[in-house]
Design a protein that fits this description.
With about 475 residues, the protein is an all-alpha fold.
């Protein structure tokens, strides 16, 4: 490039840069305002404007939080009933097989040769079908959760994107707060503005507390969503595992009858024992996995969590009380009183929303602990029974004395497998009744909450409308 061409290029580039800068395109909304030549009276107006900008940013964060909770870890209206229906089908077929086995074997305890082959085969392939249905339903729900997660990610609510979005907004709010603090220092230089300084300092603490509460809200939603997804997905995987093992157990029990080789009972016993142990440990391990997922999520959001952990609703309430006292003391001029009163109403609306969320979360946590205890106890009972059933299959299957064609071997095998059916029947019946109980209780609680307008989706949509109204009021100030 020739020297003259270089000069023209540099001149053109410089002119373009000056044009862009003069248009204000190079300065972001939250960039530092020039405060060197701002007078104390000018600072009052600029502080008021910055307070409005900070509130609008905090409303933006809260609106994002609400859209996040409506989109991520989405639970369909009929998800629980859908899964329960398939598991009730599974339980019904297992119960049918158990009843057939008790009737057929129990009626021939003293003469095992009287056990009818075809009904006993049916007692195995009927529950086999049920467990295939159960495993398929669990795999289907796993896939639906995965699909919902992919849709949420496509809408910009992936864990990484969500954290970046909120962290960016947090940094913008903190930049605005820094500018505001600098302007308050200028305002303090004029003794006649001491009342303004008192109000602005108090509002500054409220804005800081609100930011911490909003970040704490995101942290609760974000960590809670990842824990819920991790728990459900792990639970579905355990269900696939235990129902698959049950199906394989019934398959080998059927083969043992069909082929006349009792070693199949031993193989069936292995799968039944594995299924029983998975049933026992699934509630415990799923929750441990979810807790680990929550810990990892907290670590990945440390930039936000650090501020969120400072959130203290009591501090916010105290600062709101202090602002109310200042207003009652008449520290604001008549011209500023209307705006300040409007802002106080917005602050109090935020505080009420945060307090309600905290109380709802505490209630939810207490209910979750109770549910976890019940699930662990139920898993121990059902899994223990299933393990015992498996052991009763192992004995005649792997003991050479009971694999022969003698009358004693046939009688002992029949007695043990009859006992296995008897032991398994209460566990199957309990699982069916417990599944039904959980769904009915959940439906009653849901309808009660719906009538009161306290469903999570209802609360979120109501709050979104409130935020839209707040935003309009702020922009009109």
């Amino acid at each position: 490039m020739k020297v003259s061409q270089r000069v023209r290029f540099i001149t053109s580039a410089t002119a373009l840069w000056l044009t862009i800068q003069s248009a204000g395109f190079t300065t972001p909304v939250h960039a530092q305002l020039p405060v060197e030549n701002v007078s104390p009276l000018q600072a009052v107006e600029k502080i008021d404007n910055l307070t409005k900008q900070i509130l609008l940013k905090e409303i933006e964060i809260e609106r994002f939080n609400l859209h996040y909770t409506l989109t991520v870890a989405k639970q369909g209206r009929w998800k629980g009933w859908r899964y329960a229906t398939f598991q009730e089908m599974n339980g019904s077929l297992n119960l049918t097989g158990g009843i057939i086995s008790i009737w057929n074997r129990g009626g021939n305890l003293h003469h095992s040769q009287g056990v009818r082959l075809h009904p006993q085969e049916a007692a195995n392939y009927i529950p086999l079908i049920g467990n295939v249905v159960g495993a398929g339903a669990a795999a289907g729900e796993f896939g639906i959760n995965t699909c919902h997660d992919l849709i949420a990610r496509a809408r910009g609510f992936s864990p990484g994107a969500a954290v970046k979005r909120v962290a960016k907004l947090k940094d913008e709010v903190k930049d605005l707060m820094t500018q505001r603090d600098e302007l308050i220092k200028i305002e303090e230089s004029d003794p006649s503005l001491s009342n303004h300084v008192l109000v602005d300092r108090t509002e500054g603490r409220i804005l800081k507390n609100m930011l911490e509460q909003t970040l704490s809200e995101f942290a609760r939603y974000h960590v809670g969503a990842r824990k819920l997804i991790a728990f459900q997905q792990m639970q579905y995987l355990f269900d696939v595992g235990k129902y698959t093992n049950n199906a394989l157990g019934f398959h080998y029990a059927f083969k043992s009858l069909n082929e006349g080789n009792r070693i199949g009972n031993g193989r069936a016993g292995i799968f039944f024992v594995v299924a029983g142990q998975l049933t026992i440990w699934a509630p415990v391990l799923s929750r441990l996995f979810a807790r680990g997922a929550g810990a990892l999520t907290r670590r990945s959001t440390r930039a936000i969590i650090d501020d969120a952990e400072k959130a203290d609703i009591a501090k916010l309430q105290n600062d709101l009380d202090a602002l109310d006292e200042l207003i009652r003391a008449g520290v604001a001029s008549d011209a500023a009183l209307a705006t300040l009163t409007d802002r106080q109403a917005l602050f109090e609306a935020h505080e009420r929303a945060f307090s309600q969320q905290i109380r709802a979360q505490e209630k939810k946590d207490a209910q979750a602990k109770l549910t976890a205890t019940q699930n662990i106890a139920a898993g121990a009972f059902v899994g223990g029974d299933k393990t015992a059933c498996g052991v009763l299959f192992l004995i005649p299957g792997f003991n050479d004395n009971y694999r022969s064609k003698t009358e004693r071997a046939g009688r002992v095998t029949n007695d043990l497998l009859f006992t296995s059916a008897v032991v398994g029947l209460p566990a199957t019946a309990f699982s069916m009744l417990d599944t039904l109980r959980i769904q009915i209780r959940g439906e009653l609680e849901r309808r009660k909450a719906q009538r009161a307008g306290k469903l999570a989706s209802q609360i979120a949509l109501t709050r979104l409308r409130e935020l839209d109204d707040m935003e309009r009021r702020l922009k009109a100030m």
